[in-house]
Known about the structure:
2 domains; DHC; Dynein heavy chain; dynein intermediate chain binding; dynein light intermediate chain binding
Amino acid sequence: LSSLQRKAIGALITIDVHSRDVLDNLIKDNITTPTSFGWSKQLRYYYDETDREVVLRQSNATFTYRCEYLGASMRLVITPLTDR
Length: 84
């Protein structure tokens, strides 16, 4: 694998492990409704078909995704403190 491919795979694994941990915590904490704080505090992506754009939501905040590119750097490990 090239250096770029290793970085991309490493970033995907990091994001997938974090997603798994978030889901495990939602299940463990019995978060069952979209109005629960445990759900609303998560960064979520939605596609708005009317405006044809991706929207990010977390708690009471809403942002339009603007395709920011940060480069192919190594992703930091995501820990529970990262989510705070």
